Amino acid sequence: MSGKADSLKTIFFALGANFAIFVSKAVAAALTGSGAMTAEAVHSLADCGNQGLLLLGLKNAKRLPSPDYPLGHGKAIYFWSFLVALLLFTVGGAFSIYEGLHKLHEPEPLRWPWLAVGVLAFGVVAESFSMWGCMREVNKARGDHSLWYWFRESRQSELIVVFGEDLAALLGLVFALAAVLLTMITGNPVFDAIGTLAIGVLLVFVALFVAIEVKALLIGQSADPELKAAINAFLEQRPEIARVFNVITLQLGVDVMVAIKAEMRGDLSARALVEAINAVEGDLKARFPEIRWSFFEPDVAD
């Protein structure tokens, strides 16, 4: 990846936009009786709670290492990100599907439909602002790579979650707006129910995609491919190293752990061997500041 995105800024962008949208949607849903609007209000409220959980996760991830957690708490953000994906699936997706099925069986006419249209239009504008802030940070991280490549290879789980939420929210608003307009034009409230179901299915699919990506990090994923390749290239160019046997990396939140097995050059004494390893590790961490822990297993050439 080209660089690190500012996840904290992205989360605050999303939180501010989602709270403003939630208030407007909740008022409109109560006045109009729109199922699609109710689903969108619940979705926005869930998003506000989700961003709060991500902020909590980022705070927990900064806790210092301890005897019980010698590699720190960096992976805490993965737990909270996975929890957010589950909430998006249940509170957002499952509720919207339930609401849509309920409206199909017991359709109700819309009240004050133009209010719903105005609120949804405001929501599109506010959510577009949040998406703009998110994409600005995503573009910093992905560089010249495609958006799909970034989504699959990124190690910033909180940014993946916010991107998924913003995308689902923006598309959900479009679905809700189309449902309300079709209901107004035809006078058939079934379109409102169909829009609610569409929002629910959308949220379920986005939640599943986000959960799959975060699951890999939660289990224990390596550093991104570009960083691994750069570390290997750095080690192979070191004059102290004759051959690199293996390099294992592990992503731990914003930090990376590296384990190296390499053959050292020359007939070194124990002291010289230690000094050579220390020099390699010191320069490695200076070149790649995200590496917080390194473990070196040397093998001396015959």
Concise account of the structure shown:
Helix content is 70%, strand content 11%. With 302 residues, the protein is mainly α.
Account of the protein in words:
There is one protein chain. The chain folds into two domains: 7-219, Alpha-lytic protease prodomain-like (Up-down Bundle); 225-299, Cation efflux protein, cytoplasmic domain (Alpha-Beta Plaits), CATH 3.30.70.1350. It has a three-stranded mixed β-sheet, with helices on one face. It has nine helices and three strands. Strand 2, helix 9 and strand 3 (291-300) form a beta-alpha-beta unit. It starts with 6 loop residues before the first helix and ends with a strand. The model has no long low-confidence stretch (mean pLDDT 88). The relative contact order is 0.14. With 302 residues, the protein is mostly helical. Helix 2 runs antiparallel to helix 3 (76-105), helix 2 (35-61) runs antiparallel to helix 6 (157-186) and helix 4 (113-142) runs antiparallel to helix 6 (157-186). Helices cover 70% and strands 11% of the residues. It is found in: Membrane. InterPro entries: Cation_efflux, Cation_efflux_CTD_sf, Cation_efflux_TM, Cation_efflux_TMD_sf, SLC30A9. This is Cation diffusion facilitator family transporter. The chain crosses the membrane at residues 12-31, 77-98, 110-132, 159-185, 191-212. It is a multi-pass membrane protein.
